[in-house]
Queue: 4 jobs
Job 1
Amino acid sequence: MRRSPRCGSSADPTLLSVWALKGIPEIVPGADLVALIGAAAGASLADGDILVVTSKIVSKAEGRILAADDREDAITAETVRVVATRTSPTGHVTRIVENRLGMVSAAAGVDASNTPEGTVLLLPVDPDASARALASGLRSLLGVEVGVIVSDTLGRAWRDGQTDSAIGAGGVHVFEDLRGQTDAEGRTLVVTLPCVADEIASAADLVKGKASKLPVAVVRGRGDLVGPLDLPGARSIVRDQAHDMFRRGADEAFADGFAAGAASVHERDAEAFGSGP
Amino acid sequence: MRRSPRCGSSADPTLLSVWALKGIPEIVPGADLVALIGAAAGASLADGDILVVTSKIVSKAEGRILAADDREDAITAETVRVVATRTSPTGHVTRIVENRLGMVSAAAGVDASNTPEGTVLLLPVDPDASARALASGLRSLLGVEVGVIVSDTLGRAWRDGQTDSAIGAGGVHVFEDLRGQTDAEGRTLVVTLPCVADEIASAADLVKGKASKLPVAVVRGRGDLVGPLDLPGARSIVRDQAHDMFRRGADEAFADGFAAGAASVHERDAEAFGSGP
């Protein structure tokens, strides 16, 4: 393990250091992110460090760029299922959708900020694969066992504003599984499953800033979460539909129910009177 | 401003340090949290530091303790509105409810882990007021301008696991308002409103741990977010119902719609045939 002058040591689990890497240039399609992040990091990384990489630069490197006038088409193409839509008094339509990665978010992750003028960005094709490739490449290049999280900015159902969350993960545990462990009173913690990958992405956002060009941060102090490259990815954070109590907006579910309720009466009446539907 | 040997300086916005305070004893009803946290912090705090205090110890100090066999009654009492319920194959009932603080969460925040045997904890009566009192008391006691966030562990609609979020805030901005600022390409950032209070609570959870007794963490490096005690509290994070597209579970909204749809047909038929409903 390399020694580093940075503060924070994986030996003390009660201390975390988070910093943004400086010197990462504007990313263009085909850019070698491993080489660019490796050059920016230099010898500053150590075993157990977790790099949080903004999905935007992964998308750019992977060439996921479209002309801006295709934005609505792009959202439609990335959408698997419309969860809810709302039109504001000014006519702005918000579409909350499930995208092909299973994520529920506004605009299917299609991004029009911090992109070259006249363009929009799609999310990486497979952010878990991108994260694993980055972790693998950086481990080889720098000789340190790092984990990689690919982050995106997501809204929440019941809370205003956004937080950064993990949409890709390579070589890092996304959950800290405390189930089966005991609390301070010696009782089993049964339902607690902290999503540490989302918490790490949120911590990194505090140093990256939205308006600046600091797309990569390093989180040091949770080396216990770093592991083999074949750990489950961030896709495993996405709740499956069978367990999702909010898989459809309240208005939309009500409308579906209304139609079904009305139809059920017609059907019953049709049966009672013997006439066809 | 006091100098501190801890690494991380508010002068460098790209570096964040997060550590847990050691030496906070088991909290009992009536405990003086300002004195206990102040003693644990000693001279280590500086202007701009943000303390993240687990709501559990605030509840304990405020005596929000009930006998465990009142748990279901306590959940009912704390509930303003049932958002969704689900019964697992084993018969365990999950109630997602809005509590009197406006928060949507499981079990209305009634907590049965890390509590004295045979007891459950209610959330603080007014976590924003608790946070402001702590910030005010610590500023006076230690002579440093700190902010305080009271945190709780919350589930999410579409993502498995939990993250720590801010349910109380005193002397710290809960949102970083970037609206009106420009992105790196010079275009206005219109919809971005990072909920930095939730991100700070999440960062703090990474050092506090669930099974250990480390209920207070310090976040250093975002002194720009610390301000007067009358800044809006964490209550302002809660989305108001008029804008909440997920204010009711999909199954519950569908059932409501079904009943309304069936009733509408009966009503229409009653009008058509001139008979009473």
Job 2
Amino acid sequence: MNPSEWFSEISDELWPGQCFSVKIKKVLHEERSKFQDIKVFESESHGTVLVLDGIIQCTERDEFAYQEMISFLPLCCHPNPKKVLIVGGGDGGVAREVVKHPLVEEVHQVEIDDRVVELSKKYLPFMACGFESPKLKLTIGDGFEYMKQREGEFDVIITDSSDPIGPAASLFQESYFGLAKRALKPNGIICSQGGTFWIDQKHVRETLDHCRKHFPVVGYGVANVPSYPSGQIGFFIASTNDQTKLSEPATTFTDKEVDDMKLRYYTTEIHRTAFTLPRYAAKYLYDEK
Amino acid sequence: MNPSEWFSEISDELWPGQCFSVKIKKVLHEERSKFQDIKVFESESHGTVLVLDGIIQCTERDEFAYQEMISFLPLCCHPNPKKVLIVGGGDGGVAREVVKHPLVEEVHQVEIDDRVVELSKKYLPFMACGFESPKLKLTIGDGFEYMKQREGEFDVIITDSSDPIGPAASLFQESYFGLAKRALKPNGIICSQGGTFWIDQKHVRETLDHCRKHFPVVGYGVANVPSYPSGQIGFFIASTNDQTKLSEPATTFTDKEVDDMKLRYYTTEIHRTAFTLPRYAAKYLYDEK
């Protein structure tokens, strides 16, 4: 293997004509699991990198931004997020963040690909440490099927999926949001990985519209994650309680509390600003059609 | 020329180990000017792209985000920005935005490389249209030298430079901020292109510290621009008035006013949120050292 070769994230389907590349120091592992191609490599500049089906899932350098935001945005929108479901998140990063929240008592996680979990434990221990919490119960299985059997169980459901082609496709459909709503307790909150309007605003709008059919309050929050396409990723966040104001967190933290939880991105003020979008995006995503 | 080749933005000095690439449809122009290598190409996905010394300066697809924010953040921090100086900005994009502001009466611009201006007029007319305003007076020359001869002239000075290696190096030094301060009227505001803390927080902190030696109020605002490294760019903003609160604009706009000015990114609410940084960056850039 040539040590100076680059990993290039090319997708004609998801982001034609553009590409982010990271220089590879050493390939640590490659395999085809039952569900997807998995690659783990050490990079020159971004630490360890996990790639599924040719798409970067996380880099050691900036994964904290994503994991903190997909976890703390919904958790802090809920006044008492005792029982949480994580769908996907096989690397353990979301679990690592969710169990930090002082009100969370019980976390259930369902991940379809046990190979991602095993490889993360071996090569990404800084994320897989999330699996070690006594609050967490991990199930290997299909999140869609898992939710079909749950009703009124969870305060918060977080869907940490890959992009909407491949094994995660069903997690972006309208029926998924219907199932998620049914699995929630009253006043429940959901949060799903939501791509970026910079590349595919039509997909973001359509998924928001799926959400709107089931939830009275729906929003789109954003975080900056340099190693994702466009350097930004969004989250679909919805509440069954029509009084929820997503940009005003129910739980707030002082800087000291933020530091004690070892948060590096999320703060209460970051939460308040996460739903403010550029004018063109706000118009496209929120205006009546 | 192979029409399916990629332009790859590699810089071992500025962002080692990572690289953003755009697929080239057609190279429109290439030359070595007196100051730098200039390349203009039509891309598959990002419209026309301007490259100086191998670094993307703007793409037709997302340049509006940068131009609007580097212009409207400082203009709206100032209660009455009548007379504005633009240093750099040879593509015309900043001029295009600055003259939109309803209180701006007179804009002076000094750009070092007339070839950028000429090529922009030919290949990037959507930006070079900024040069057509009767409010604008363009001078070809060195911004550093130009400012040495000005004292107490401008309400706002905007420095739209390339990165701190090459012809723009002097625009990031402490002496530059001293000159800028002297060229301002009382209660003046400056704003300079400021890189990103995701890649080089040490440079950002050092430049903020240069600023702090001359201005009582100094801040760092950010905008998302997908085609820049990390997908985000920051701005050094400073005021000579110690009562200025950068995150609370002196001039506010309704959505209708924003739309009438054809702004696609900037809104009053975006301005208010632009100075909120991830916890790790806020600590590094603002904590006492």
Job 3
Amino acid sequence: MGCCHSCLHYVLDYETPKTLVIQSKAVGFVFRFTQLLVILYVVGYVCVVQKGYQETDSVISTVTTKVKGFAYSNTSDLEHRFWDVADYVIPPQGDHSFFVLTNIIVTPNQTQSRCPELPTPSSICTADCDCTEGHSDPRSNGIQTGLCVNYSDTQQTCEVLSWCPLEIDTNLPKHAMLAAAENFTVLIKNSVTYPKFKFHRRNIMPQINSSYLRRCEFNRITDPDCPIFRLKHIVSEAGEDFQSMAVKGGVLGILIDWSCDLDWWAGKCYPKYSFQRLDNKNPNNSVAPGYNFRFARYYKTPDGEETRTLIKGYGIRFDVIVFGTAGKFGIVPTIVNLGAALSFLSLVNRPVTVTILLHLILYFSRTI
Amino acid sequence: MGCCHSCLHYVLDYETPKTLVIQSKAVGFVFRFTQLLVILYVVGYVCVVQKGYQETDSVISTVTTKVKGFAYSNTSDLEHRFWDVADYVIPPQGDHSFFVLTNIIVTPNQTQSRCPELPTPSSICTADCDCTEGHSDPRSNGIQTGLCVNYSDTQQTCEVLSWCPLEIDTNLPKHAMLAAAENFTVLIKNSVTYPKFKFHRRNIMPQINSSYLRRCEFNRITDPDCPIFRLKHIVSEAGEDFQSMAVKGGVLGILIDWSCDLDWWAGKCYPKYSFQRLDNKNPNNSVAPGYNFRFARYYKTPDGEETRTLIKGYGIRFDVIVFGTAGKFGIVPTIVNLGAALSFLSLVNRPVTVTILLHLILYFSRTI
Amino acid sequence: MGCCHSCLHYVLDYETPKTLVIQSKAVGFVFRFTQLLVILYVVGYVCVVQKGYQETDSVISTVTTKVKGFAYSNTSDLEHRFWDVADYVIPPQGDHSFFVLTNIIVTPNQTQSRCPELPTPSSICTADCDCTEGHSDPRSNGIQTGLCVNYSDTQQTCEVLSWCPLEIDTNLPKHAMLAAAENFTVLIKNSVTYPKFKFHRRNIMPQINSSYLRRCEFNRITDPDCPIFRLKHIVSEAGEDFQSMAVKGGVLGILIDWSCDLDWWAGKCYPKYSFQRLDNKNPNNSVAPGYNFRFARYYKTPDGEETRTLIKGYGIRFDVIVFGTAGKFGIVPTIVNLGAALSFLSLVNRPVTVTILLHLILYFSRTI
């Protein structure tokens, strides 16, 4: 009974530190000034600048792209040829990553057969005994048949089993074949979602109407909200020259930053576009500089034999990269940041802190 | 020596605030009640609801999809035609994003040649002088040759160099050609990894056996774990009508939420599916509503001339979007959240806080 | 006036807790030791191990891949055939996800026509009345015409409208047709960006020169920085056997971890490669184990009829998955972690804590 009573006493007694009030204006001033600094820091930096009171969420995004434009190439080896979207956009789906063909090496009418290897130190031969049947060097173009045949009037090379005739990719056109690609335009449709905040938005703003969309073109100053980009404009904003990039190809990033502050009004949340070359343009530190890949179109001759046209396509791959973080007031980060700030405030209440500060001030005031 | 002694004294002296014990039940009650509130908040909200003691990691995911089904179209312009997966799924690989063709405009037997432009205000002409050789309007279909030729019995338009005959894409079928696509099914295989926690899981749960997988179909109530989805079901759960969406196409998100609490038992971590239309279906605020793209199939005639079949394909692109955050007990977030909470508790120990609270309580008790 | 004076007094008065200095070496030692522990924890664990003072950012990445190698298949059903990159890499673009064909089932010369269904319990028939015109079972291969025709000398099945002849995919070659694919190599070019820190880097390090790149091959011990990987090596590092995986296909993840500490010198930030099989190799819990998809090549016969070659391709999809978090000193996390730590330190100043600790120590020292 007495134990219970004392226990209740312990629970309901309020224990508080005895405090001492020092009525010195100097000490009081230093104290309040330091408090002010801490509070200013907390309110000004943690809250206003860094938004420490916010919960964050990462963006989920979907992108659809549609390229428009056509070109006419009149280089000799491809005859005169007209190119439209179905020809030069690979793959055609208009995903978040699309490739625009700008330069090609075409090897038509390849069939599965035998032909002399391209002349390299290891393929040049003088007699059949220089070639090994079944040998396949990864750097060569096919499997040796063991014969040494005439490559040209002056050279003999080992015969290989391959898609013949072999591709000769050393004569890449100096000027991009589809130089006109710089005037193609691309419409980028981008929808984003912040699932934690149930926030959904598109890069085509509500105030943009259909007739504006039909004629506009992105420009950072005059048309910052237009989602239609001229390829030349994208490349030049990334600090590159379209024509020189088009020769050997490259990868170009279209970065869409959806960093949003969802606390105030949703209107503050809009996409910020930037452009950046993503591959290395420095040629002395890379194998296969630029961007190219080989693909083939398969045909059947009337007698059922399979032939293909091999295309080594150079071009610019545009990667639409969407990133961003949305912040919104959340109780946990607020508590955590405020709690941390209070810890600092309580430091100021310690006599030792104020004493140190006072001594520092006195020292500096004397030296001045 | 004396200095060292006093220094040791300073180091080993324990300095603690003098405290005052107030044996007032009212004050004690207010004090303990406030403490209780703070503790309740910390335990209840920060720990239980927000799981502030957890470290988090973002998901890494791989998706494989496989569509099944076939359809028969009997619209007049494409003759009667049978469609299977290799025909209507583009690209065929079954990536995290797959496209099901539902409606098409076919322009067969195009060749590189000359033909009259489609009649528009700018292409209609009366004499050759209305057309400029080499002129190419981005909105037209080719490069003008400078001639004015008969488009029909009544109209003359400028001749262009292009893939001829030109595509006429104004007569889109009102009813989706592949209406039967609504009964296609898709199997989605999804593996996720949380690298920080070395956690690995698939959306095909261990308890699912092969025979169940062969016959099941996702249904939120009866079969919530089945990874096979009927396309019609996906579209209707997203609040759309398959047949009307199939006409002009669209983009549909299959969202898989892998938010997991890895603290308790791993069995709690399972995928939650949701479906959402990602493009804008509102037609008055968009160019090119829906989703379509052009692709071509290239052929060679027996005499070696290249022809192509141009296909403008409309359809639904399904984007499988995997997101989620896993949380697991971590020492740093626990310390940080607990530390912040202690700061608040120490506030309660201040006499000024309790005094304010007491006055508030007295004020309210008097007014009532 | 008097009010203002007292108000000023209140503002400038410095209120500090009265403290009591206890000159007991035992108490002082316990106090300082506990302080030391807390400080050690904060400095050692939160700062050094967990880097609690850092702000973090997620990686943005672009990947380009290029496969090299050729193979020769001599299985009977495909005749002798030479395969190069344009044949076996699908899609050809060299994206972050690429597929290498290793085994195929080819069904050439399919046309839109009628043929007997493959014999299954539901397709075997004895008379026309067993087949329903227009009936299409999702598990069958086409739409029934209502006729019962000879499938073989001994069996009759319902006739279907489909791409004929039908694919028979039960005779998958036991040994992967492109077994030589294990010696193909892939060059992975990966650029990463941490937008918050304006940090940009490639997986081809500055010290790597062009001649090294031409001959090197990734090896964890001898060439850890070489971005060229032999497919066999990738698969074996993931704990799988290439030849057995090649038969039915699979999905293999090439994980690149770009976790970086950007505080010290940027040289510490380099990619760490790891490999992991992502699909389920356990065959008793999955429909369609492995990885395959169907695609077709379309041809036109001289008389204009469309035929296709249907290919069911099995192979390994390589997904390059880039992840990572960069950390750099940030003022907000520093404040928050330090604040939390200070809260713990202030706990030690409480007499109740020290009393408890003293009692514990006394208790243990007596029992020993």
Job 4
Amino acid sequence: MTSPDAKTDGKTAADLIITGCTALVHDDHEQIDFVEDATIVVRDGLIEAVTTEPMDLAALPDLPAAEHIDARGQIAMPGLVNCHTHAPMVALRGVAEDLPVEEWFNDVIWPIESNLTEKDVELGARLACAEMIRGGVTCFADHYFSMDTVAAVVAECGMRANLGEAYFSSQGAEGRERSLDFALRQRGGADGRITTSLAPHAPYTVDDADLAKAAQLAREHGLLVHTHAAENRDQTDTSLARHGRTPIEILQGAGLLDVDLLIAHGTGIVERDLPVLARATGRIGVASAPRGYLKFAWPTTTPVRALRELGIPVGLGTDGAASNSSLDVWDAMALTALVQKSTEGDPRWLTSRQALHHATLQSTRAVGLGQEIGSLAPGRKADIILVDLTGPHTQPVHDLPATLVHSARSSDVRTTIVDGRVLMRDRELLTLDVPGIVGELEERMPSLLDRSHGRKIQDYDT
Amino acid sequence: MTSPDAKTDGKTAADLIITGCTALVHDDHEQIDFVEDATIVVRDGLIEAVTTEPMDLAALPDLPAAEHIDARGQIAMPGLVNCHTHAPMVALRGVAEDLPVEEWFNDVIWPIESNLTEKDVELGARLACAEMIRGGVTCFADHYFSMDTVAAVVAECGMRANLGEAYFSSQGAEGRERSLDFALRQRGGADGRITTSLAPHAPYTVDDADLAKAAQLAREHGLLVHTHAAENRDQTDTSLARHGRTPIEILQGAGLLDVDLLIAHGTGIVERDLPVLARATGRIGVASAPRGYLKFAWPTTTPVRALRELGIPVGLGTDGAASNSSLDVWDAMALTALVQKSTEGDPRWLTSRQALHHATLQSTRAVGLGQEIGSLAPGRKADIILVDLTGPHTQPVHDLPATLVHSARSSDVRTTIVDGRVLMRDRELLTLDVPGIVGELEERMPSLLDRSHGRKIQDYDT
């Protein structure tokens, strides 16, 4: 991402200098802290410094080659991470409303997905990336089909992503092999912005032997496994009735708790799962997407407090837009705080600082990038967003974390930067053309939405 | 609001023509419907027509004097109504976070409110109106102090409002008299945009005799009464323990269910209250502000389904920003749908069309303006918002009500119109200067926030 004329006087030029912002940082105990009137120096896509030292830009010979953003009045934060989504499903936003999850899957989504073409995935992924960049999301963990296409979109649009090709046991060995092939082939792609996962769909669609095979492959190849598990309480109850084990116990039996594992949702994690999770030797993370749980009227949400006591990071996600209606991680952050307070009956729990910790380091750990991103600290990748708090809805600021979590909205993100490259400047997308994408997507709709064939890709029968 | 040169050829000019929009209307059964490629004609602040007839603007002699908005690609909707707020409290946004309600009142808010000056109220109300206009709110029901000041801000900024001067029994007869004087003096103000209420604070701060007096005055003067009641379950339990009656039964005993009554919150409305409410002879409405209930970790929310069965309209509100963090009614609409689904355990309940009905006719009925606003229909006042759905987060549109409720955000409102007058055009506020207001408010903060005096305006002891 170094600009072509970035070398001056034999020194490597900084890619980017952001001045005058208030920077959200983590202190030595990982508490959220703020540095006022900060300058952020980015070189070769990495954060070199977050400093309050006055800098005389003109006096530094290597700086004229860099891009300079005057961010006075703005907050610089680590870019948000969407820890669990199916990006291309934005194409299906609104096709299955006000339904229980089994009808949502069996009557609408899985029949429609039997029509999916690579073009649909490509256009959906582009639209999703546009939505996410506009909402301050710099990285997403995606679990879907035709993922080579999604990888190409990631390369094109400049985002960071962890990508996994989903598979079911109903596909035989081929699904798993394709998932592994994808993961090995694409990791490190897009100038290192792409990491990959093995992506078995869920314990209710992938059998025990295949889950064990996934664990073995993950260990062999050092891959993260990204799967849905204990999505809701019904799944846990059904699993107990059919197999005498919870979905978490099934993962454990397959060896998946002894590799790096990203569990989507986990609202069906129950008391007896906690000691099982406590014995995990892999790095386990959970992605929580609370809007969809409310919309599906699930009786519980992700047990964030219990997971915290186990030291398991809970990252923020949106799931696909076909259930969640949006890929708004900012909204997931606020809703997580609200729903957690309500669920625990404790207004002091999940403070705004805690919510910001989930949105930063816990999210990056959940997707296996805990050392690379998630904090504005020297050596981390320069995934940075600038948030404007001058709007009437965010003034006055008596409590900056609360303003960010409960008053600001994703639309207050003005600038989105990944690897030091500006992907949105003053709310203008620089790498994606939304009207063009929407126009092409419209044309795809009749064949994508057709359910007259009676096929579906899978049965929801947990 | 007729423009000065509005008369041409002896005909009254239309104030405003909006063309090319999709208009949200109500059908004969009050179901939400949409008229595509609609033209909305506004004359003298009233909606004259919502039509799909092609109009040759140049050929109509009276039209050149009118303002013309080309709204292709936008949705025209009735302006949102904030059915319960304390607008000036935006000045206190974030001062009391992550606290139970009793500490929030006793330790922070009521001590700070003993410092309130008219200037604080004025600046807070201005900032609140700026936030609301930007969020597509055209009318708000306010319950606070120094309400003449709020009325002056409403006159200045062009919004519509129902205003009530709050009082406690601890103020003696003087509080009630001031509230009545305000209500009688200000009603019909700001060219008819101001209506008024009597505003006894709540059954736990206003005694039975004073509540009965409020009912009597309301009947005598034809005034709405706006009060907090059964705000949470604790209040109901405490009321039962102390008085053997629920807050709703206390209102009933005082005669307040036989006048027009706006009840804020009602999350503590219990089973035994339902027959009491069913026997009400006044027009009762309830304002629900779900974000704050989650934030305070209250165990229940407004019982929307039970109230619907009684025919009691439930309007949307935000409460004050000191608890709710924002005055975002769009967010209240989405959260109402989500929380209702979750609370009832029924994903089919509170559909997006129902949510839009709450946001329109139920809200306007709750604030006593059911005949004046709330629908884009001839003869109604021209309180209209234009919403842009071209952003990536609202595309594609498979289900327009769902897109509006669950994907769109208040920041998608581009234009806000009250009484036919444009208050925000393309997100630019035309009647309020936010940086100026914020700058003045900053200066007020040290004296407003001072709690060293040990005073407070009231005790929270339900």
